Amino acid sequence: MTRGTAGVDVPDVDEGAAELELRGVDKIYRGRSGAQTQALQDISLSVRPGEFISLVGRSGCGKTTLLRILAGLVSPSSGEVLTGGRALWQGGRRDLAASARFGLVFQDANLFPWFSVEDNIALPLKLRGVAKRARRARAADLCELVGLTGFEKSLPRELSGGMRQRAAIARALSYDPSILLMDEPFGALDALTRDRMNLELQKISVVTGATVVFVTHSITEAVFLADRVVLLSPRPGRIRSVTRVEFARPRSLDVESEPGFQDVVRTLRHQLDEEGG
Ligand SMILES: Nc1ncnc2c1ncn2[C@@H]1O[C@H](COP(=O)(O)OP(=O)(O)OP(=O)(O)O)[C@@H](O)[C@H]1O
Ligand SMILES: [Mg+2]
Asked: Whose CA is nearest to atom 2 of ligand 1?
């Protein structure tokens, strides 16, 4: 890792050890009218196993696009995406074995309203042919992990927004993904609930050892959660900076009042302001 100014690291490529890696990724969307939008330009990033990366940047800078490319939901226009050293795309086709390593969580929980919490959580296991008894047991364990014990039989509409997001996280974890990709999962929650969710997510990431890429509009949330914060510049999205957060994880909310924490937040806010948009 090369260290730049004010705690800002220059993007690194750590050969061999990466769980996830992007090499020179561009994304150009082609609209029906023939109009082209370059969403991402020359993105290179290497994420180590168990690392927590936060991705920040202005609206429209390509964060969701980057996450979808990492998940293999969208193909890059050029460049390479590797997971565990394996190319995610082989001759224009997605490597399904590699894709199975991902768990996805979006801004909306997207639970099936007519399924109970445990059936929602266990749905990916059902689709994979896991027997009912094993699904129940796994759902119970996950409910405990995300703090939903006692709500296994509830319907999504009987839960609060934060509880629904916890169910969505449990569902994403059901098949033991090694990588969790999260797109503003707590964006719709109030500040207090969000703080609690951040503490829980942190606990989950430590307990499961999952590698996490987490998109957020909140710089404080990004810094609180991450080992490294990646800041994208506006369209086309390029990596503006990669900032290491030196505080050991798991962290308590008290860390937010530490001068070192506030310095990192301030530096990132300035960078975001300089990017305009
Ligand atoms: N399917 C698509 N077809 C065409 N253009 C798209 C498509 N998806 C995204 N874009 C464009 O790519 C750019 C990046 O979009 P993206 O959704 O990745 O941004 P974002 O950083 O996630 O924004 P936000 O913070 O608002 O969620 C935008 O200009 C958007 O209009
Ligand atoms: Mg987005």
From this structure: 29
